[in-house]
Amino acid sequence: MWFDNFSKGNCKNCYACVRVCPVNAIEIKNEQARIIEERCIVCEECSLACPQKHKIISSEVPIVKHYLRNKEKVVASIAPSFAAIFGKNSHKIPTVLKHLGFSYVEETLVGAQPIIDEYFKYINKDDDENYITTLCPTIVNLIEKHYPDLIPNLIPSISAFICHGKIIKEKYGSDTKVVFIGPCLGKKDEGRFEDCIDAVVTLEEFERWLKQENICWDNFEETSFDAISHYKKVYPFISENTGYLSKDKNKKEVVSVDGAEDCLKTINAIRDKRISNAVFEMNFCNNGCIRGTGMGDDGVSSYERRRNIIEYSENCNAKQGDETDNSYDEILPNIDLHKEFQSKYVPLKEPSDKELKDILKSMGKFARMDEINCKACGYKTCRDKAKAVFNGLADTSMCIPYMRQKAENRANVIFSVTPNLIGIIDKDLCVEEFNPAAQKFFSISSLEAKGMPVIMYLDEDKFQQVRDNRKSLIKDKIEVDEYNSVIIQNIIWLEEDQIYIWIANNVTKEENKKKEIQQMKMDTVNMTQDVINKQMLVAQEIASLLGETTAETKVTLTKLKKLVEEEGKNNEVLY
User: Fold this and answer.
1) How far apart are CA 462 and CA 473, in angstroms?
2) In this structure, are residues 463 and 491 in contact, taking their beta carbons and an 8 Å threshold?
3) How far apart are CA 75 and CA 77, in angstroms?
4) Which phi and psi angles does 98 have, rounded to 5°?
5) Nearest to 245 by CA among 347, 112, 154
6) What is the CA 548 to chain-centroid distance, rounded?
7) pLDDT given for residue 321 in this prediction
């Protein structure tokens, strides 16, 4: 492929490419933008709109360098708009290109006059039909891929650079490598289907190449091209060709149209039969080829580019004078200028009414009034977007109003149902909003709270400290005496929005429970101490009683012992 798709790493889901694409040739899958080749008209609007500055152009300069390294015969065909970029150095271009290794250097204008002659045949057709010139490849792609019913309105002729490519092949040999250097990305697409073109290099790529080669213009002399064009150098200007084509005796009016919007409107007018008997010189780029998609944005105005070309043209006329080049007169009869354009239209599948309504509902469109047709997703209407979803070209998440509403609804649900106390406090320390939980805690309605100083409810010094220190206050336990409550609060300052977010948990019940448990512990300790004390008293009383009885027992036993002893002695005396 001549182009690269958007890289996954760079795609940021901004949908900028989708919004600018005039033919909805960008699909979004898995949050990744991708160019649909079957629908793309190669206008480069997507690449220009991409905030990541992603270039979809695949440079063919390496291919050209390969030809030059291999010492092949390489001929450059350079579009007349090159003078818009190179200005006073334009006459040195042939010398520079040959320094790079090109064998011959010719202006693409050599192939313009035969094509203009073909256009005159249709300008003087005796019918009421409208015809469209085929110099702009983006216009041709637009009609072949999206307006196939207007293919008969395309003048069936090749473009000037294809004509020149065929001339070069015929003149220098079929093995010659033809490299077109021009202002248009669309030429890459057109050239890949033609055997007479071997590579296409945009002027932006050519400039970059020269910088890489460290080309110093002062080291090169002015030289002529290897073929002198009979056609005027102001070919890239919108209306200049129209002026040339417009003759008093023409049977059709010749009209110039440039820019995407006017081209689309004109094409629709032709299709709807609102216009008749005219030939339209169309160029999809505003201001024609001097603002081509392959020229880059160098900050130079269209006026300056136009002036550069005019000065170059005047200098050429002064140097060449009446000099003519008849080298192609014998070649032209061998060149086939005819081209049959083919329909490349790939229709989208049409959803049934039920399928369409189901998709619309999935995007939050339950009634006609919900279909606001804001075009933020890149589609003209919500129904067009729904059809794209049905065809797999878009996601329902691309509906920005719906996704915003969905996010806001979820945020509102969380804000409304959470048991946490939430407050939004402005930079002047006044309440902007309390959620229902906070309203219940402070016994105040949202309307009553709005605008009230936060000091009416909380310590404002802590809010000010958070802002001054740029450090959030987290898990700060405080007692709110007025409400006989205890809360754990978090205070966050949002610098970008200039507001405080206050979030708190009412832990009064937990704190009261802790106090109850603590009291129970103290009561238990006291009761335990009482039991211990009582036990000690009992032990002491028992000890006292045990002491008395032990003494009495001792006395009694002593007396008994003595009595026994005395009785024993008496018995011994008797015997």
Assistant:
1) 8
2) yes
3) 7
4) -70, -30
5) 112
6) 104
7) 62
Tokens 């200098």 label which residue?
315
Quote the crossing angle between the two packed helices 160-172 and 112-123, to the nearest 10°: 130
What is the per-residue pLDDT for 343?
96
Q: DSSP readout, 197-265?
A: --EEEEHHHHHHHHHHTT--GGG------SS--SS-TTTTSTTHHHHHH--TT-SSEEEEEESHHHHHH
Neighbours of 349 (CB within 10 A): 9
- What tokens does 60 get? 């063919």
pLDDT value at residue 3: 56
Partners of 423 in the β-ladder? 434, 502
Best CA proximity match to 50, nearest among 16, 2, 85, 27: 16
Angle between helices 353-362 and 382-390 (to 10 degrees): 100
Q: How far apart are CA 27 and CA 124, in angstroms?
A: 43
Task: Give the closest residue to 363 by CA, choosing from 342, 386, 343.
Answer: 386
Q: Would you call 178 helix, strand, or coil by DSSP?
A: strand
- Cα angle value 361/364/369 (rounded, 5°): 95
CA–CA separation, 378 and 22 (whole Å): 9
pLDDT band at 159 (very low <50, low <70, confident <90, very high): very high
Provide the pLDDT confidence category of residue 392 given band limits of 50, 70 and 90.
confident
Q: How far is 257 from 426, CA to CA, in rounded Å? A: 55
392 dihedral zone (left: phi>0; alpha: psi -120 to 50; beta): left
Measure the CA–CA gap between 435 and 447, rounded to whole angstroms.
Answer: 11
CA angle 313, 315, 321 (to 5 degrees): 95
Query: For residue 412, is pLDDT > 70?
Result: yes
| Structure confidence at residue 235 as a pLDDT band (50, 70, 90) | low
